[in-house]
Structures are given as C-alpha cells and as structure tokens.
What does this fold into?
Amino acid sequence: MGAVTVTGLEITYRRAGSGEPLILLHGGFGFDSRSWGPQLDGLDDEFDVIAWDAPGCGGSADPPESFSMDHYADSLAEFVRAIGLTRPNVLGLSFGGALALALYARHPALPRSLILAGAYAGWAGSLPPDEVQRRVQRISEEVAQPPEEWLPKYLPGMLTASAPREMAEQTLALMSDIHPRASLTMLRAMADADLRGILPVIDVPTLVLHGELDERSPLAVGKELHTKIPASQFDVLPGVGHLSNIEAADAFNLAVRTFLRSLSGPTRL
It folds into this structure.
C-alpha cells in the first residue's frame, strides 16, 4: 500500500497496473480500498488503477467530525495531485459516486470522465426526506454497538440473495472493520449532500452504472442521474444488487473497460 498526507490527513491507497489512470472511490459502511479487489485485479492489464481509503476508512486517518462532502472532495483533489495525476478517470460507488459528483462540482477540470455506480446525488439529492431521516437515525443508534450485532442486517441491501455464501462472508468481514466515529462523520456528510444542481452542467463523459436489483440506491435513482446528466450513458447490470462491482465483477469490469476505451484523446499525466 502507498500513503500520502493531504489536508493534514494520512491517506492510504492501493495501486496496480499501468495505462490510463482510473481512481476508485468506495462506499461507506466500513468499506475501503479492499472492496475494489476485483477491479484492481481485473483492470490492471490496461489501466493504472488507484483505489484510495477515504478519510476515516481502511488505513486512512479519521477526519474532523465537521468534515462535509466538500471537505472529502477537496481531500480527494489533493490526493489526486499528490500521487502525480492531472486528469484521471473517476469511478465512484455509492458514497463514492456522490463524492465523484462533489469532486466535479468543486474541481471540474480534474476528472477526465465520471463513472457513477450505484450512486446518489447525495442522500438529500436522491432520497425522500423521511428515508434520509430513517437511515440517519438507524445508523446513528447502531454504530455504537459491536459491529457483529448490527452490520449483518445490512448485508441483504448490499448483495442479492443469490450471491455466493463465501462472497457474502467476505463482504461482511470487510464491513466489520468500520471506524465507528468516522462513519458517523461520513453519514452526516452523505445525508446533507444535495448535488442535483451540478448534474445538468456536467460536460465530461459520464457512465451511470447500476445494479438492476439495487436496494440501497434503487434503480430509479440511477435513471434520474442519467436523465439529468447531459449525454450520459446508462448501463444496467441485470440480477445484481448494490455492490455490483463485487457481485458481477466480470460484467462490471467489461462495462467500465468498454466505456473508457470509447473515450477519445490522451489523458495527460
């Protein structure tokens, strides 16, 4: 693993391959760069794949409790520059998708393209207020408890019932490494974020990639993103849930590879 210090925080990351740079932004709920294993292993033959641990996730330092989505986006922009990239392709899943949008909102010249997987325009921008309140209240109450007592309840929302048992067990083990306090910071940032305003002005190539059976970010959320982002592409992975990069890794990687290959012009390093 590599590590850099940005905005006063040590940020750890995994990197594999060479070629066009592709930044991977993981979701919340204890996920970190390890959740991109199928992409680090499956796309490194053609791309320089970099998966960061967001502040408060994996090996990265916990951010201040006041961290907002804008702060995460600024930290990400500094991270990209710290590892020597100028215009990488940016792929975000779930929270990472909202972060990719926030990055574009604050640093529009930075991403070469966006791939939004199981994404939201922030919870405030994609979910009804009562659903946002329900999620915040539930997670705020549960996160103080031992992970084994509450995290398994969320697994059905991440993977479908047809996912292999070993995959479910590995996913739960990954989620169990959650940083409780930092997860509340991330939760508040996601709950408050409303990024609908940036969608109509996005002018970089964008792929909206969604699992057909996603329960956390329902398919209608992905359709709304696609509708609002000019000239975006929309790709639905059939029969899989929220963690489509894990549950349908081959199809996910193919969709990403096909989209990136379609982009014209070199990326500046």
The chain has a mean pLDDT of 95. The first strand starts at residue 2 and ends at 6. The two ends are 21 Å apart (CA to CA).
